[in-house]
Design a protein that fits this description.
heterodimer, A: mainly beta, 6-stranded mixed beta sheet, B: 7-stranded mixed beta sheet, globular
């Protein structure tokens, strides 16, 4: 079945460090891919998305590129801030018309000053 | 505007109580969702309404009863809950809900429920 695998956390970085959170997926066809962020005590916010191969989603300095050949959608940011500390979820909607969001397990990011 | 609102923000209830969670969106979306999220886990889908009709029920116990009075409003009625039902309940909405791969779900802030 369709699935999403994220790197385990927590990921701990110093402020201004480069961030990569790995995400790979298993799905037939061309799913849509998403990154959601959940700040402490809050709901999920859509961070970025990509709907076809080689698309790059970007928002608030974060980027991710839909790589069909490696079935990946890694999240990157050039310089993290303390305010980026949160849980990041990679997710997909399969092309099989279920419309169901399939989430990875989430990666906790802690950024220290 | 991509806002989904949920009330209340926090709820404490006993196992014999009846309570309701409310969700509202004004984005013109025709699909609304309920998710349950336990600590340090991803959200789990409970129900989907598309065009005000229940389209997906993920085998949720009958002590959870969803209701969609119109396409902007979604309720979750709670009765005789168990302590293990304590969780963050998230509402989401999307354009259509009929399974299109391009559809984006927008989430509300959640209701944190504690069952004593």
């Amino acid at each position: 079945g369709d699935s999403v695998t994220q790197m385990e956390g927590p990921v701990t970085l110093s402020e201004e460090a480069f961030l990569t959170i790995n995400c790979t997926y298993t799905a037939t066809g061309y799913p849509s891919l998403f990154w959601y962020v959940q700040y402490p005590g809050e709901g999920l916010q859509l961070l970025l998305k990509a709907t076809k191969a080689d698309d790059k989603g970007s928002n608030k300095g974060f980027e991710a590129t839909y790589r069909k050949e490696t079935t990946s959608f890694h999240l990157e940011k050039g310089s993290v801030q303390v305010s980026d500390s949160a849980v990041y979820f990679c997710a997909l909607i399969p092309s099989s018309n279920t419309g169901k969001l399939i989430f990875g397990q989430g990666t906790t990011l802690q950024v220290k000053p | 505007d991509t806002e989904v609102t949920q009330t209340p923000k926090h709820l404490v209830m006993g196992m014999t109580n009846k309570k309701s969670l409310k969700c509202e969106q004004h984005m013109g979306h025709r699909a609304m969702y309920w998710y349950k999220q336990k600590a340090k886990k991803p959200p789990e889908l409970m129900f989907v309404y598309s065009y005000e009709k229940l389209s997906i029920n993920e085998s949720v116990p009958s002590r959870f009863s969803p209701e969609c009075p119109n396409s902007s409003l979604l309720n979750l009625h709670l009765h005789a809950l168990q302590p293990e039902d304590s969780a963050l309940y998230l509402c989401a909405s999307s354009q259509d809900g009929r399974g299109f791969v391009y559809e984006t779900q927008y989430f509300g802030p959640g209701t944190r429920l504690l069952v004593l």
